[in-house]
Design brief:
- Helix 5 links the parallel strand 10 and strand 11.
- The protein is globular, with a radius of gyration of 19 Å.
- The strands form 6 sheets. Strands 11-10-12-9-13 form a 5-stranded mixed sheet, with helices on both faces. The protein has a 3-stranded parallel sheet with strand order 5-2-6, sandwiched between helices.
- Helix content is about 30%, strand content about 20%.
- Helix 1 packs antiparallel against helix 7.
- The protein is of the alpha/beta class.
């Protein structure tokens, strides 16, 4: 119920700048039947993939951020991964996922590395990142939230102050938000390498809370096997954030292919199915 109420609130917050993805009635349309579908033969992007065979898209991710990307049964799975697989089907391509730490991922993208084609890692599009990283069109709208233990005295952001220890994933927009808005209140900002590590720190009492994207906070509250419950607290002054697939600045052909494929899976309802599977089965997704 909490998940439903918070996501409904998020959708209401973003309604003025977002449009609903088409309903599931269109989901029965096969991707291969979409008029003008891109293939290896008709689109130049797939001739330039780093695998060199024109068949395989190599996609990097930091698999520590469920439900967007995580490890399960030795495989990288999640919302982002299912989106990429659907886009690869549209492009008539195979896909291979490779694991990167967040810092290493940002470094490789900024250096325009040829070690992968693009990244799918719940990355917020920011002006600063866009100076060195090429982004696709946005594919997800999010906002930061605070996670605390359910038995904590913290019930709203008004309760957060001097000495409160908050975990953030290093280099993320959650880290930026905490530094910009909480550090001046005397909050101790404690960066960790991944989202999973932030919650392990909370479990071991190293920190008092976690600043993270609200779908991740809700996922942890619902799916984690900690011996305590979690409370998710919305942050009133948090701005909406838009996730994009990211790549080196020279990868414009790949960006074009991704944008076409993303538009196709939104149009035929595949995006809505994946959203219901990983994010929220009760409310429709929104996009910028």
């Amino acid at each position: 119920m909490l998940k439903r109420l918070l996501l409904v609130g998020l959708i209401a917050l973003l309604a003025m700048t977002a449009v609903a993805v088409v309903g599931c009635d269109a989901a029965e349309e096969d991707i291969d039947d979409v008029e003008g579908a891109v293939t290896r033969e008709t689109h130049p992007a797939l001739a330039d993939v780093v695998a060199g065979d024109g068949l395989t898209l190599t996609v990097a991710t930091d698999p520590s951020y469920p439900p967007f990307q995580t490890m399960a049964g030795g495989e990288i799975v999640g919302f982002d991964m299912d989106l990429v697989k659907a886009m690869a089907d549209y492009l008539d391509a195979e896909v291979e996922f490779v694991s990167y730490g967040w810092d290493a991922l940002l470094t490789a993208l900024s250096a325009d590395s040829n070690t992968f084609d693009f990244a799918a890692s719940a990355m917020t599009i920011t002006e600063e990142r866009a100076e060195t990283i090429l982004f696709s069109n946005p594919y997800f709208v999010s906002v930061q939230a605070l996670s605390v233990r359910a038995d904590s005295d913290i019930t709203s952001m008004d309760d957060v102050g001097e000495g409160f220890r908050v975990a953030v994933q290093r280099g993320t927009t959650g880290h930026i938000h905490a530094t910009d808005h909480l550090e001046e209140l005397g909050v101790v900002i404690m960066p960790y390498d991944g989202g999973t590590e932030c919650y392990l720190a909370l479990a071991s009492d190293e920190v008092d809370g976690v600043i993270i994207d609200i779908p991740v906070a809700l996922n942890q509250a619902e799916e984690s096997d900690f011996d305590f419950d979690l409370r998710t607290i919305p942050i009133p002054d948090a701005e909406p954030e838009y996730f994009g697939f990211s790549m080196g600045m020279s990868r414009t052909a790949i960006a074009d292919a991704i944008n076409e494929a993303l538009a196709a899976i939104i149009e035929n309802g595949t995006y809505a199915e994946i959203y219901a599977r990983w994010i929220d089965a009760d409310n429709p997704p929104v996009l910028p």
